[in-house]
């Protein structure tokens, strides 16, 4: 299973040898909020995804995919017909791009 967004950014922070308070200061958010995001107890706002990508010098689209997948899982995790929902959503997206 792929890492969650929170696990991903925590790993990036640790790889860069940065403390929680250092990253929260650079991102101008409270350290407790960052901790909740890293522990998957809070969903980061989309604008933070770009800030994380710049701070850690990682591809924005890769982080965005992880972030969006977490949001989708959160919305659908308790549904019985996930596959059908995703299939129809994919069709709607494809039709919207034509």
Q: What do you see in this structure?
A:
This protein has 98 residues and is mainly alpha-helical. Helix content is 72%, strand content 0%. It contains six helices and no strands. It has helices at 5-15, 20-27, 31-38, 46-56, 60-76, 82-97. It is elongated. The chain starts with a helix and ends with a helix.
Helix fraction?
Answer: over 70%
Give Rg in angstroms: 16 Å
Q: Which structural class is indicated by helix and strand composition?
A: mainly alpha
The biggest sheet amounts to: none
Please trace the helix and strand order, writing H or E for each element. HHHHHH
Strand content: under 5%
Low-confidence blocks of residues: none
Number of strands: 0
Q: Terminal Cα separation, in Å? A: 32 Å
Shape: elongated
Tally the helices.
6
Q: What average pLDDT do the residues reach?
A: 93
Short description:
The protein is 72% helix and 0% strand. It has 98 residues and is mainly α.
């Amino acid at each position: 299973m792929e890492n969650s967004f929170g696990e991903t950014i925590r790993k990036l922070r640790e790889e860069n040898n940065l403390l929680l308070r250092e990253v929260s200061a650079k991102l101008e958010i409270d350290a407790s909020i960052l901790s909740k995001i890293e522990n998957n107890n809070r969903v980061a706002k989309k604008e933070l995804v770009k800030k994380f990508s710049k701070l850690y010098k990682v591809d924005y689209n890769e982080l965005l995919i992880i972030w969006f997948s977490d949001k989708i899982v959160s919305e659908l995790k308790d549904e019985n017909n996930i596959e059908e929902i995703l299939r129809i959503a994919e069709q709607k997206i494809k039709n919207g791009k034509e």
